[in-house]
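Hello,

Our lab assistant flagged a job as stuck in the queue for most of the afternoon. It eventually completed. Since we weren't sure the result was trustworthy after the delay, we are filing this so someone can double-check. Below is the sequence as submitted and the structure that was eventually returned. Let us know if re-running is recommended.
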Amino acid sequence: MNAVYYQSPVGPLTLIEENGALTGVQFGRAPLPAGCRAAETPLLSRARRQLWEYFEGKRTEFDLPLAPAGTPFRRAVWAAMARIPYGQTATYGQLAAAVGSPRAARAVGGACHANPIAILLPCHRVVGSTGSLTGFAGGLPVKEQLLALEAARSAP
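-- returned structure --
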């Protein structure tokens, strides 16, 4: 397991790779998990480059192998989240319906909160039923910044 820190426009990010896939993109300089070493790998280098392109407005989709650890329900929510188009949002209820559990909006919120791969699995695109911004691991100002970045780059 390897990790690198990336100083992004929304603050430091910790990128973690295990067995050839990204398993974590966390806000801040997170403590490295046991057995993890700070080392650049080709995949982590690609991830940093793609994140840089995203923040520069040159990338709207990521092309990286992801392996988020979680329950089958959470993995289903994260897969549905990954299908929310750049510059758009979906509600917790819409994601619940998309994974076949239309009454599980709160559980979807829990899956968003547990998202181990921020930005690449775009939990920042998930909003409340009225379009309101709700909790976000990076903080609501970062969520606003990410949504504004995408809205500015996807406007006609």
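-- support follow-up --
The delay was a queue issue, not a problem with the job. The result is valid. The mean pLDDT is 92. DSSP finds five helices and six strands in the chain.
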